[in-house]
Description:
Layout: H1 3-17, H2 48-61, E1 66-68, E2 78-83, E3 98-110, E4 115-121, E5 128-135, E6 137-143, E7 149-155, H3 157-169, E8 178-185, H4 186-192, H5 198-206
Antiparallel strand pairs: 1-2, 2-3, 3-6, 4-5, 5-8, 6-7
Active site: 165
InterPro entries: Peptide_deformylase (IPR023635), Peptide_deformylase_sf (IPR036821)
Organism: Sanguibacter keddieii (strain ATCC 51767 / DSM 10542 / NCFB 3025 / ST-74)
Amino acid sequence: MTTSTSFRDAVERYLDTFDRGVLPIVQAGHPVLRQPAAAYDGQLGDLLPALLDSMRLTMVDAPGVGLAAPQIGIGLQIAVLHDAGSTDPEDPRERTPLEHRVLVNPSYEGVGDEVRSFYEGCLSVEGYQAVVARHRTVRLTGQDETGRALDEQLTGWPARIVQHETDHLRGQLYIDHAETRSLATNDNLGTLWSGPSGLTEASESLIFPLA
Length: 211
């Protein structure tokens, strides 16, 4: 039995443990979240669609807008994304809809000098959010689940999602890039800083800069 086959079989047993449905999400403090994920080069073979289905179900159930394979304990450079977007055309986050998609071996680089600061959370850091300054526009490269090459630009919240999930594959969490003084529980964020001027008020009251 080859190492690749052993890995595939281990992932299959893991998925079957949960009837190939919703999987447990690994929380901060687990080593898998801090180790750069291995490039995907076909290790899972015909099991890849089943893994992607379980990742999508897990992301939707959480609910979240993205999920990287290390967040379910699998150290491969694979992520799923989906966001219905905002119904507010004036949403400063530019939260446009992002159709369900898969990223394999993704990488990004900032396009231009524009940076935006917004509160951001993570399914692997339950209960908290913090402000992260990120590129407004990024160039995304990599592949999709079929191996088709990706090379595109994304702006606004979709660009933030790509940055967040790709960082997971590098062994990084959003808190590594956050303004630590902005850290807030979900309850406090909703109660104190959820209004139109909430981000500015949080910056002034908690004393942290905005990009």
